[in-house]
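hey can u check if this looks right to u? its 105 residues, i copy pasted from the old doc so theres a chance i mangled smth
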Amino acid sequence: MLGRPYYNVYLGRKDSRLSSASSIEGKLPKPTMGMSQINLFASSGFTVQEMMALSGAHTIGFSHCKDFSSNVGNDTHYNPRFAQALKQVCADYPKNPTLSVLHLK
């Protein structure tokens, strides 16, 4: 999508034969978590530096509108034009909870 090199990536986990949302609860950060909750990865053996490197490596992704839309109009840290665009794109998220936006960091 971004014009970068393309290659096939095999899907699936290598650390388990099972995968469920309940098995990762409390082990991955949520979009609403702040920096004070960075110690979440300590239980998996990550240092703060390693966690920041891991987070920084995820530069292209997507976010579900339901996870941030309530903050867009209330948070002054958003660029006003960007906030308006997010409001327009996510306007129907109550009807479609899977609605998401692509983001580049």
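The chain has a mean pLDDT of 76.
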